[in-house]
Amino acid sequence: MIKDIGSSKECTFYVALYIIVTTINSFIPAAALWYSGQILKIVENAMESRTVDRNLLFRVAASRTVCSILQRLSEHWRYSLSTIAQRRIKAHYQVHILESYARLDLPTFEDPVIQSQLSAAWGERAPVAWNAVQTVVTTAAMALRLVLQLSVLAAVLKGQRDGLILAFLTFLSPLMDWMKFRSYIHPSSVWAATCRNDDYIRMEGVKDVVLQSDHRKEMVAGNMWEHLISEYDAARKRLGDAAGSFHEMLALHKERTTLSLSSFLAEPIQEMPQIVFALRAVQYPASIPVSLASLNLIQSTVQEFAFQALHVFDKMFGSIGEAFHAVRKLYDIQNITNRVIDGPNSFPEDQQKVALGVSVEFRNVSFKYPGKDDYALQGVSFKIERGQLCLILGENGSGKSTMLKLITRLYDPSEGNILIDDRDIRTIKLADLRRATSVLFQDYTHFPLSIKENIGLGDPTNPRDQDMIEQSAKLGGAYDFVSRLPEGFDTYLDRPVQDVYSSLPEGTTTLFGRKVDYGAVRKFGGTSKNSKTQLSGGQMQRLALSRTFMRSLGPDNQVGLLLFDEPSASLDPVAEHDLFERLRELRGNKTMIFSSHRFGNLTRNADIIICVKDSHVQEMGTHEQLMKNNEGYAKIYSLQAKAFLP
Ligand SMILES: Nc1ncnc2c1ncn2[C@@H]1O[C@H](COP(=O)(O)OP(=O)(O)OP(=O)(O)O)[C@@H](O)[C@H]1O
């Protein structure tokens, strides 16, 4: 980490300044203490000799004041430098963390162990690397400050009557506080809490149903609210005083454990120095004013000293270890190995040929999702020839999407092989394989970026080509509605940075050129956020389609295989018809695979229909062949057709 930060000029300068200022800052309290001791000595001398060296007093007092000013200033500089250094280190590491995230494949990324490793490294609030730097620097500075203060304190106390005893007694009180504090939040203790009370669990569930907007539609339409409220009330009554959140219960528990012996002794111990002082004053009445001043100095210094000493102790045994552990995790994520291993060979050998499509073959492929016992696909074999249009047909959950995921190597089969142009896809470089395929997933996503970028990212080699973006939007059927949006192609589907505002004057409908989302106002109370662009499911799907067109239809594209997982699920019949027409026209000779659970437009046009059921291929062939077979396909087809026949 030190090497890494050191190699980044933008970080090094500010981190070095931060260390220097923090070190200087550690000297000041000891200097201040020294001058306070000097003032005390001057007073003592004055008491004995009845004369004051005004010059000396002035110099010492001025120095003491300078110490205070310097202390304040160095604190300010330290804070300013730490914010800049923190921001720079954070920015430096964020690229590194994002890269570690981005390069992971699906099975690796979905692994819960990897997930926790990744989230530990992210540490958005307290950037891990900065945290480690700061913890080490402040702990070292505190230790230095402590040693200096301790030496000065010893020098000052040497001449004081009862100084050491008073210091010790003053130290006892913060020590007890600290021990009490550690007893219930010990940094290295491990604990867990659960709730086993059914009534409480139900109350929390009902509260969520009523408060969260996700459930509102069904709650209202289902006429549920009265029942929910009576359930809540009944559970609340049964629970009585025992109904409390985890934090309330924890507070109660802590309160109960505060009746310890030390809690009774805490206050008398605090009074001890005064008692000792009073007894001594009776013994030596002449020295009362001096002793009073020295008691004050001892008490304030020792209390501050005790706080710091105990804090350093805590840091040494807790935070530094934790910070280093977190840094190790930060570096470990660089070395996470992907489960889907890259292949060695380039693909395709002949770029021209890809435009004519590629063949796809499954040889006895079986697959289980990671952590699952059931097969999502079992013993699947088929071959789709170059340039064919294939339809994979099957019920929900039969394994259609899984086939497409395996072709793009989002996962690798548990058994069997998949071949593209007669080459095992595991031997092909992943980047080449993905360059040669274009896939529209059923659960396609929309990135929280502008519409323009959402479409443009379809072709990451040429994502800003406005003409291509617009043409793709036309082909995907998105151009018209996008053009009508106030911000057109620059519209953010889901703004990642939200506008935040207080309550607005009545009648405000737009803010920063965007419609105010009063739903959000209600949700967030006082300050509110403005985020979502409301598009329908069909419109969202058209955008996803446009992205696919962007990828597969550009002049330089190297796509030979187009995969569509239920591309028309949210489209109306006219849009669906238009889409298939466009796809057929535009695909040229590229191989195309559609998955669907509906019979429709494509069944008659497909060169090959593969029917899957319960993770197996049931039958395959052209529409005519399958009708002739008179098995599952023909039966369902006839059943559906009947509905439309007179
Ligand atoms: N990410 C996943 N993790 C675990 N199991 C999964 C995952 N995705 C799918 N499955 C399971 O694998 C099986 C096949 O799912 P798949 O999505 O391939 O079906 P499908 O035929 O595409 O269904 P649909 O028509 O509903 O899209 C199902 O039993 C499903 O529950």
Automatic annotation (TrEMBL):
Keyword flag Transmembrane helix: yes
UniProt keyword annotations, A-Z: ATP-binding, Hydrolase, Membrane, Nucleotide-binding, Transmembrane, Transmembrane helix
InterPro entries in UniProt: AAA+_ATPase (IPR003593), ABC_transporter-like_ATP-bd (IPR003439), ABC_transporter-like_CS (IPR017871), P-loop_NTPase (IPR027417), Type_1_exporter (IPR039421)
Single GO MF descriptor: ABC-type oligopeptide transporter activity
SUPFAM superfamilies: P-loop containing nucleoside triphosphate hydrolases
PANTHER family: ATP-BINDING CASSETTE SUB-FAMILY B MEMBER 10, MITOCHONDRIAL, ATP-DEPENDENT PERMEASE MDL1, MITOCHONDRIAL
Gene3D superfamilies: P-loop containing nucleotide triphosphate hydrolases
Protein name (Swiss-Prot/TrEMBL): P-loop containing nucleoside triphosphate hydrolase protein
Membrane-spanning segments: 12-35
Protein origin, superkingdom: Eukaryota
Domain ABC transporter: 360-639
